Amino acid sequence: MSTQRTPPKLSTTAVGHTQSESDLNALQQCDVSFVNITRNKRPRTELAPSPASDSHGQKHDIMELLTNWKTELDTKLNDMFIKQNTLISKLSTDISELKLQNYKIQKSNDEIVQSMEFINNQYEELKSGLTTLQKERLEQRLCIEKLERNIQDLQLKSRSSSIEIRNVPQVDKETTSDLAKTICVIGDTVGSVITPSDLRDIYRLPSKPGSTRPIVAEFQTVQMKQKTIAAVRDFNNSKKTVEEKLNTGLINISGKRQPVYVADHLPAIINDEAYIIMKSVYWDIESTSPVSPPDNHAQVRGGGRQRYGTTVHTQPFVLPSYLKRLHF
Length: 328
Prior knowledge:
By secondary structure, this protein is of the alpha+beta class. It has helices at residues 24-29, 51-158, 176-190, 222-237, 268-279; strands at residues 162-166, 199-204, 215-219, 261-264, 282-283, 290-291, 300-302, 305-307.
């Protein structure tokens, strides 16, 4: 294949290019009238930016950006202010409620304090009243005890000449003459002469159904009463067996033989106290004097008699004043 190339053909059309000429002077003398010189400029359009319009556009963009930023910032600030206002309103409401609750609590506390003061005053009044009542109760108790002692003394004085005979059966259609006759027979049995004129009064005491009612005989004088009781005691002490002591058979009462007891006619309360006291007292065998029971009170039998243990307390037992003159 041939490597030669065909040169391009010269164009017959005028080429709108300027030709360069090395000789500028000759060029000035050439006729250039045939040359059509046309300036090809880019047409100006309305959209084509100019330097002034570019600067104005940049300012406009910046202003628009700033405006948008300002609007967005204002919106955010407004939202934040709204939220803050809402929160502040809520906090203000809560604070108002707390203030109201605090006021109610303070009012309640004041009422509680007033109530406590009232209760304290009432307590102090009750305490003072209770102290007064206790003091009055003590005084009344002392007064009652004093009155009881006086009553006991009066009862003892009123019964100072009376004796009580127990365990004497009651006969049908019994009269005071029958009772007086029984007392006279008892006196004759024990060796103490008693006549109906020596008796001021005689009667039976009430008792439980089915039990023997005691006989109360009131003498004209205390000496006669003491003489009768001493005679009964001497008579019983002179007998060695229980069957020989004063009983219903010796005073001519029919039926089963049973012991007859003669003692001072005491008020019921004194009888109870005397019974309790005598239960806590025993008699020393050697001295025959009442002493307090020993701590070691194991009972042993020896010599046919019942005695307490070997330890014997000799501390004397003191009887009450109203029991000192009684005969046991």
